[in-house]
Design brief:
By secondary structure, the protein is mostly beta strands. Helices cover about 15% and strands about 35% of the residues. It has two domains: about 80 residues, no CATH class; about 80 residues, no CATH class. The strands form four sheets. The chain has a three-stranded antiparallel beta sheet.
């Protein structure tokens, strides 16, 4: 074979191999430091702050010089908007809580503090407080609601309505009957239950 034809054949083979490599080459991998986007808007909204802004709660603390205004250590708070099912170091407007725990997470002085399991109020929830707009129809003595190691009261929340036997008489209601019962006890003694009627 003539040298010129051999050279043309070799160039054709090299070109074909290069083209094939470009077609089957894998896509470039993402850089190792590319952080995935957060799937939770709440998680993305959490941050360390030197104060607890209005409308926020905090879930952790640290003693640091970052927030110092006079050269000494100061508390920094990990803050985020309150949500149902969040363990927070404070309660929040529009929420109740159904459990507590003693922890150093909430410490501002090196001693233990209380964390609260936040819950959105609803009928049928056993809660440690009775939020505005609700009544309750039963109680239980439990350590779930303790902030000092002693027993506290848990309340079975109810939305007020006509025909409900409730332990309180909410605004906008009267009652047409009563009964003496331990259902409403907060101290081990009998309490009164009211048969509600809307006004």
């Amino acid at each position: 074979m003539a040298p010129s034809k051999l050279r043309m054949l070799l160039l054709s083979v090299v070109g074909a191999v290069a083209l094939l490599g470009a077609v089957i080459a894998p896509a470039s991998a993402a850089p190792d430091d590319a952080a995935p986007e957060s799937s939770s808007g709440v998680a993305a909204a959490a941050f360390w702050s030197c104060t607890v802004p209005s409308g926020y709660v905090y879930t952790n603390t640290q003693s640091t010089l970052d927030c110092s205004t006079g050269g000494g250590f100061h508390t920094k708070y990990y803050v985020q908007p309150p949500t149902n099912g969040l363990w927070a170091c404070s309660t929040a407007s529009g929420f109740t809580y159904s459990n507590t725990q003693s922890t150093l997470d909430c410490s501002t002085s090196g001693s233990f503090g209380t964390k609260y399991y936040l819950q959105t109020p609803k009928t049928g929830l056993w809660a440690c407080t009775v939020p505005s707009g609700y009544t309750y129809s039963n109680t239980q003595s439990t350590l779930d609601c303790s902030t000092s190691g002693s027993f506290g009261t848990k309340y079975y929340l109810q939305t007020p309505k006509t025909g409900l036997w409730a332990c309180t008489v909410p605004s906008g209601y009267t009652y047409t009957n009563t009964q003496s019962t331990l259902d409403c006890s907060t101290s081990g003694s009998f309490g009164t239950k009211y048969y509600l009627k809307a006004l």
